[in-house]
Every structure is written in structure tokens, then in C-alpha cells.
Amino acid sequence: MNVLLLAGGGGGARLACGLQDVLEPGELTVVANVGDDVEVLGLQVSPDVDSLLYALAGLIDEARGWGRADETWNALSSAGEWGGEDWFRLGDRDLGLHLVRTRALREGKPLSAVTAELAARVELLTPILPATDDRLRTQVHTPAGTFEFQEWFVARGHRDEVEDIAYEGAGDARAAPGVLQALERAAVIVVAPSNPYLSIGPILAVDEIRRAIEGRRARSVAVSPVVGGKAVTGPVDRMLSRMAGGTTPAHVAARYEGLIDMLVIDEADAPADAPVELVVTEALMRDREAAGRLATTVLEAACG
Amino acid sequence: MNVLLLAGGGGGARLACGLQDVLEPGELTVVANVGDDVEVLGLQVSPDVDSLLYALAGLIDEARGWGRADETWNALSSAGEWGGEDWFRLGDRDLGLHLVRTRALREGKPLSAVTAELAARVELLTPILPATDDRLRTQVHTPAGTFEFQEWFVARGHRDEVEDIAYEGAGDARAAPGVLQALERAAVIVVAPSNPYLSIGPILAVDEIRRAIEGRRARSVAVSPVVGGKAVTGPVDRMLSRMAGGTTPAHVAARYEGLIDMLVIDEADAPADAPVELVVTEALMRDREAAGRLATTVLEAACG
After folding, report:
1. pTM, rounded to two decimals
2. Which of A41, A42, A156, B3 is the most buried (most CB within 10 A)?
């Protein structure tokens, strides 16, 4: 059964692992957010692609939820001492990947091809497809001004309330090679419990991808990023409250109008009304086993 | 007393420390070899500039003789795992500097300006001037073919006998800002016990520098890189034997014909004949104190 996951952030990486664990090798394809890609110290960093790569390859720091296990931080510390920027946390092992990717991108390879090469290096059987090879960057409008995503999220600690989101470059962005074919092939489309504005929004801002999902034959299931009305991590509850008017399942489902058939919510958010079918389960992925259970619930609901 | 040191490699860094220790702050200026600069993993690495910077700032790994103390190697290891080149040993702390420098060079700053900024960061009072801001690369001709310096030295372990040396770009290279002024100002010019072909040769290949030294008013003193007819480190003895016909003081002095007034040699190489005045001392710099004693001997000989 071909399953396509739209994913970004820690929740996306965790559900990707759960789905990979319960599906046969090669059945899962992940389309990754690139809206929070950033250039740091001259290196091209793709945090969501990397979280997926590290998580699916078993390299991620499970406790931290991003970056590599057994990490050291000496290069960044040194760069700071020499006057370089050190606001974006790049570990030494992580840097090795960014060096290799940046060089390949500078040689003209598209991000999708570079990502496939990296995945092949760790013998990953789950394709990770960046939503687009074109430049697409999430910009955050706040009372304090407009910021690039990482500047707002990391450097400013996402303290500024978000008034609006823009996806710079989305108008011209094409789906990366393989994305539309994977959407066409998928029996189930899953939207990860990622931030609808920051992680899934940039993927859906690529017109070809949005249209393909709107015209889907597959069942499409989103997992709510909200548990008990609150974010598991990050600012999603604050953003939903301010920009959508609340954090109920109906508010979450409205972010994906026309794009999903079901919404999986946590028991803490039930009962609820929503314009799509609701599936109530234990949605918090406390560990890899819980992610696998959630993945099974999602797939059973979609196929039921 | 203004002293100008021409330096490259480990011997250059050690004598630079010795001279810095025995001179007043600001009296020493070092002109550094850039012929073995190399691009690795998309980063601009200047090994001789960095050895001087690390040594003079007290950051160098004394035992290894290059790179930073308390170093880790995780980024390079990771880069190798992801398919990147890992033949050139770059430590994590070292990488921090290369990231900062590479970014500044890409923004169009000349190497001399970037080096001055780095030196200011560690409050170094000894200016380190790259011989040139222009591209100048040492190429090594061997029976196995012609190699870029680092490819021959590191990747091939300098096992191929050297038949000839070329300095690519030297014909068009101008002295970096400050070099000619420092030569003009110097009361003493010191040539470090560095490899005449690989470390000092590329500096002297810059025509403006060679002419300035040929027309010097200062006393010019070289320290032989040979002790007891053998290299302290590296391939200098093999290169002198093959290309100059021997490793005696006369063979060393001939590399600097018209450019030096005296040659400092180790007791193990005396007595000897040479076309310049010989100064016999304990030339092996076993530690920082020995480097200071050698520096004092060099300066006393030049001024005596």
C-alpha cells in the first residue's frame, strides 16, 4: 500500500518513523517542507529534510528531537569565537552533512537529487522528497516586523505573535521530481501532526501539489498537531488561536479544507465537531512504539 | 626593532613564536606562505596562515604541530560518511575558522583583510600577512605526474619524488597589502627553517617580494631547515638531495642566493663551507623555550 506523508518538524519526523515501521519497505514516501531552509555560515541547511533523514536512518537525537545523536558543538563554538554567526545550532556531525550538501548544490545539483544521494548513503528505503527544488521560504509577519522563518523561530525564540505567513517563491515553485507521481500513486495521503502554517503550509503553497491533493483519488488523513488544545512543541497553539480563532479540531480541519477526508485527534480533544470525519486515539507520540501505534490507527482509519 | 619573518609550515610557526616571545609587541611581522592553500569540502583552507595564527595565539596543538588543541573530528567523519572528501584532516574547531573565512572571501574580502580580522579576534599583536591575496598555488612535478601541493603532500603522503616545483599564478601575483611596507621597515629579515621549495619558495615567487628582498637594506638571515643533514619533519632533505644535489649548508644557502646574508645552522651541520656567513647554534626547537633561544641567536647574529 503506497502511503505519502506530508511532513515537517519533529512531529513529522516521528510519524514518518511510525509509518516506516508498520509499512513494508518502499511503501512510504515522505514529502518534506523546505520553507524553513536557511543559509548559515555559508552552508545550505534544510532542517526538516534532515530531521526526516536522521530520524528514518536512526541517527537522530531522540531526546532533543532534532540533530544527530552523540553530537558535539565545537565548530559552531569556534565560528562564534572568530566572529561568525552562531545563533543557529549546528552540531559537528550535522555540519558534515551540510558541507556535503552545500557543495553539491553549488555544483548545480537540485536538492531532490542531493537528498536522494544522502539517503542512499545510509541505505534508506523511504524516499524523502523535498516539496520543491525551487527556492521557497517561509516569512513571518509579526507586530515587530517581517522575519525569515529561522530568524523568527530560532534567533527571536518565536516570541513575536504571528499575524500572517507568506511563502516567498511559492508562486513560481514547481513540485520536485517524483512528488506528483508519488501523490498519484498513493492509496493514502497522510498530513503529519506538523504546524499547518509553518511545516505543511509551505508544501501546500506549491500549486501543483495543492491541486494534486485537491483532485486526489486517495484517502487523505491529517493528524492534529494539537493535544488537549495545546501544542506538543512549538507555537502551533498560539498561531491557531490568533490566526484561526481557536485550537479545536474544527479549527485544525479548516486549515486543510478540501485537502483531507479525516482528522485524527487525541482523546483529550474529543468529543468535537468538525467538517471532516474525526478519528479519536492516543495521538501523543511519546516514543517510537507510540508512533507506530498512531501510524497503524491512521492507516486503518484511512482504509476502513 | 622591526623584524620580518618569512614563514610556512611547522618550523615557521615555531620560530614565529620564539621571535614573538623575545621581541616587543608589534615588532614582529610574519609573511605567510599561501602556496599550499586548498579548497576542501567547499571551504577555503590556508594551512600555513592558520598554523601561524594558532601558534601565535596559543591555540595550536603543540604535540601535533598543526591544528587546534583539544580538537575533535566529528564533522569530517560525518562528511566522509555522507560521501564527502575526508582526505584532508580538518578538525571541528578548525572548521569553525574555515567557515568564517570562506564566507568572508566569498563576500569579496581579500585574504589579508580576513586574516587581520581573525587575528584581531584573538587580540594578536603580531601581524600575519599572506604573501599575496592573489591565487598562487604550489604544484609538484613527480615521476607519477603533476599534483596540487596538498594532493601530493597529504593525499599521496609525499611519497613521490619531486622533480620540479611550479608556483601557479605567481607571475601575476602582487604582494598583499602591507608586505612591501613591512619589508621596507624591517631592520632584520628572517627566513624561517621552513621548506625552501614548498614554504619559502612560493613567497619568493611573488616578484615584488623577491625584488624587495634583493634590494634590502636590512640584514637577512635564514635558518636552515636541515639538522644533521636531515629534515626535522617533512620531505625537505629528500627534495634538497634530489633537486639541489645535497643537504649541506651550502646547498641550503644556494636556495636563497642573493636573498640572505647569513645562514643559521645546527651544530650537527658544522663545520661547513657556504657562500654566506654561517652561524652555528642549537637549531632544533624542541620546545617554546628553545624557539626563543634560537630567535635570540638569530637576532643577535643579524645585529652583531
Report:
1. 0.95
2. B3
**A78 vs B74, B81, B93: nearest CB:** B93
Q: Does A102 touch chain B (CB under 8 A)?
A: yes
Residue B103 touches chain A, beta carbons under 8 Å: yes
pLDDT tens digits, one per residue of B250-291: 999 999 999 999 999 999 999 999 999 999 999 999 999 999
Q: Note whether A96 contacts B74, CB cutoff 8 Å.
A: yes
The Cβ of residue A250 has, within 10 Å, a number of other Cβ atoms equal to: 17
C-alpha cell at B125: 599583536
Q: What is the pLDDT of residue B14?
A: 97
Closest alpha carbon to B193 in B139, B243, B264: B264
What distance in Å separates the CA atoms of residue B77 and residue A30, rounded to the nearest whole number? 27
3-state SS assignment for residue A217? coil
Q: Do B97 and A103 touch (CB under 8 A)?
A: no
State the Cα–Cα distance between residues A98 and A90, nearest whole angstrom. Answer: 9
Residue at B7: amino acid letter:
A
CB contact under 8 A, A78 and B94: yes
B105-129 confidence digits (pLDDT tens): 999 999 999 999 999 999 999 999 9
Which residues of chain A from 23 to 42 reach within 8 Å of chain B, CB to CB?
Answer: 41-42
Instruction: Tell me if B99 and A68 make a contact (CB, 8 A cut-off).
Output: no
- Which residues of chain B neighbour A42 with C-beta distances below 8 Å? 99, 102-103, 106
Expressed as residue numbers, the domain containing A240 is: 3-303
CATH number at residue A210: 3.40.50.10680
pLDDT at A304 over 90: no
Q: Is B58's Cβ below 8 Å from some Cβ in A? A: no
* Cα gap B17→B40, rounded to integer Å: 28
Residue B124 confidence (pLDDT): 98
Cell of A164: 500572517
What is the number of structural domains in chain A?
Answer: 1
Are the beta carbons of B106 and A42 separated by less than 8 Å?
Answer: yes
Cα B166 to Cα B56, B201, B233: the distances in Å are: 29, 9, 22
3-state secondary structure A17-44: HHHHHHCCCCCEEEEECCCCCEEECCEE
Q: Angle A37-A101-B99 (CA atoms, 0-180°, nearest 5)?
A: 85
Mean pLDDT, rounded, of chain B:
97
Find, among B288, B283, B282, B281, the residue nearest to B304 by Cα. B281
A94: which chain B residues are within 8 Å (Cβ-Cβ)? Answer: 78
Q: Does B90 touch chain A (CB under 8 A)?
A: no
Whether the CB of A87 is below 8 Å from some CB of chain B: the reply is no
Residue A219 to residues A13, A186, A255, Cα–Cα distance (Å): 21, 9, 17
